[in-house]
Amino acid sequence: MSETVTLTIDGKEVTVPKGTSIIEATEILGVEIPRFCWHPGLSVAGVCRFCMVKIEGMPKLQIACNTTCTEGMKVITVSDEVKDAHKWALEFHLINHPLDCPICDQAGECELQNYYMKVGRYSSQMDEDKVLKPKALDVGDNLVLDTERCILCSRCVRFEDEVTKTSSLGIFNRGDHSIVGTFPNRKIQHNYSYNIVDICPVGAFTAKDFRFKCRVWFLNETKTICPGCSTGCNITLYEHKNQRQYYRLKPRKNMEVNGHWMCDEGRTMYEHLNATNRLAVPTIAGKHLSWNLLGKEFKQKLENVKGNADKVALVLTPQYTNEEYENILTSLKTILGNLPKIYVWRDSAEKIDDFDGILMRGDRNSNSKGLSQILEKHAAQAVTLSGDFSPLASSSANLVLVFGPEIEKSYSQFANEVTRFAELSNVIYFGTTLNPITKKFSLAIPTKVFAEKNGTFINFKGIPQKLKANPLVFPAMKGIEDIFAEIKA
Amino acid sequence: MPVFSPELIKIIEGFLNRYETKRSSILPILHAIQDEKDWISDEDVDTLEKSFGLSAVDVREVLTFYTMYRQQPPKPYRFEVCKSISCWLMGANDTIKTLRLEIEKAEKEGRPLPFEIHGVECLGQCGYAPSTLINKDRHNNVTSEKALQLLKEYSAKELPNAAVHCAAALAAKANK
């Protein structure tokens, strides 16, 4: 296990475990070798012949992905010979590539395009006609396939074989007529299909929900955490640079949490962030209330029950950050004199211990663990509301504070259950999604979504992970911490 | 009508047992299917997956790689004329031309012949050029005259079993 070998890459010495390939060793050093078929999360195929490096003592260039490091090996990744090999490898990859970058969705984040700008030949010597192949094939619920753009790296085929084990893709036909495809009349239907779009180095696989929507160079990247389930996959969120509009999210590598992948369910977590779906302004008994007056009204409601903490009910959902829970609990303690009765609202149909074997967990809340830790810290007893709302109804509280879920679809009976709160009198509801029911609460306060917060989620394993805030979709909006700070001032 | 006959199922199972992995048996299984049904349809591949546990994608990868597996229903007889160098020198091209003309003529006259003509690579019978295969029968020194004679001879024969199966299956499918 602990056997290591020491080799030199471009004059820099590096010690790696035995069996490491040269490309993995260069990753450690931060040297980038151009590659198409190699992907750190998949097996080695060695088909693109692009990651050529010079190894001293070997007569010809070798591929870095399928050559194992040996003791004393001397590798050169930058030389005229290597550069020439890259140029010609690209020339061959482009023989049948349609070069339709102006209308291709991958343009801007295309590995073929990027490497061509870096190491390409720029003037092709091919004057044969290109082979025409099927285009814009519907190969799945989320995928569109253009076989002309494909460079046959076989990443998608290996992903299907190794990660999802569905094996629904293969390379058919022969020679320059080879195409990637599914079996006739079968589709790729699993919860991880968007990963194929991510690993495709060219625009052969494009995502149905991002296709023709936005150019990638108009997007800002934010590194944050997926709120879709308790796994807490690390993601990059893409927001338009000039408009306050979210377009998609992609997984970020974190071997401890999600590896390289994320599920399709999680990829929909940008939809509820956009203004059209958001609760924009506070309402008081159904009428709009300006943000300036909100603090006063809210304070009034809390002052009315001051000293009667046991007449106040606080309903929490496991989708807020640790910092917010902390803030809510300490602020209420200061204002009311003691902690109110605490209820945790959970989905009645959830199967917490479910796991699909890859990433997605049955607990569709991002911060169940964080909530229970904070409650423990405050020595608070929480009653779980799961389908049965009688504990809350029988408490005959004078004031009910509900911190509603940000992702409403993780509650299978959301529309039903939220009306149970609306039936009570004097309810203050915090929520993010536009919903006619919010007008029925005596006070409805919009809150920030996960993309607009700095905070911490604790995943199912107990790993705390930081969220990073983007600019607000509604600039006037105040977060929970702002509102409580205003009251306490 | 079942997709595979009981005899064919026995052959397929034999191949599956003979090799270490299921994937290894794809080539002979596809040959066996083609021998019985003249061609391999998507339905056949589907059945291989459902009844025998072979991956449909693996089978299709093999099937589309090799040109001698037929993915479309063929005519009952495949007249394959070698067009490699020895046969070409001995007039293979004339043979092919004559055969094509004859079949075209018959078609126009409303008596279609059950033949497909293919030019193929070396059959290893250079001493008997031009060499040909009709389905799996070899014929030597097939000049234009002999080719026409073979057409007559084969047209008069009863159709091979595989062709009968193929036609029956297609008719059954058309009725559905």
TrEMBL record, chain A:
Coiled coil: none
Cofactor: [4Fe-4S] cluster; [2Fe-2S] cluster
Family matches, as SUPFAM superfamilies: 2Fe-2S ferredoxin-like, 4Fe-4S ferredoxins, Formate dehydrogenase/DMSO reductase, domains 1-3
Keywords: 2Fe-2S, 4Fe-4S, Iron, Iron-sulfur, Metal-binding, NAD, Quinone, Translocase
GO molecular function, one term: metal ion binding
Cellular component, GO, one term: membrane
Top-level lineage group: Bacteria
4Fe-4S Mo/W bis-MGD-type domain: residues covered: 219-277
Pfam families referenced in this protein's UniProt entry, alphabetically: Fer2_4, Fer4_Nqo3, Molybdop_Fe4S4, NADH-G_4Fe-4S_3
Domain 2Fe-2S ferredoxin-type: 3-81
4Fe-4S His(Cys)3-ligated-type domain mapped to chain residues: 81-120
PANTHER family tied to this protein: NADH-QUINONE OXIDOREDUCTASE SUBUNIT G, RESPIRATORY NITRATE REDUCTASE
Record-given protein name: 2Fe-2S iron-sulfur cluster binding domain-containing protein
UniProtKB/TrEMBL annotation, chain B:
Annotated signal sequence range: none
Xref: InterPro entries: NuoE-like (IPR002023), NuoE_dom (IPR042128), NuoE_N (IPR041921), Thioredoxin-like_sf (IPR036249)
Binding site for [2Fe-2S] cluster: 82, 87, 122, 126
Record keywords: 2Fe-2S, Iron, Iron-sulfur, Metal-binding
Cofactor binding: number and manner: Binds 1 [2Fe-2S] cluster.
Cofactor(s) it depends on: [2Fe-2S] cluster
GO molecular function, one term: NADH dehydrogenase activity
Superkingdom of this protein's organism: Bacteria
SUPFAM superfamilies per record: Thioredoxin-like (SSF52833)
Pfam family, any one: 2Fe-2S_thioredx
PANTHER family (UniProt xref): NADH DEHYDROGENASE [UBIQUINONE] FLAVOPROTEIN 2, MITOCHONDRIAL, NADH DEHYDROGENASE UBIQUINONE FLAVOPROTEIN 2, MITOCHONDRIAL
Family: Belongs to the complex I 24 kDa subunit family.
Protein name (Swiss-Prot/TrEMBL): NADH dehydrogenase subunit E
Organism of provenance: Fluviispira multicolorata
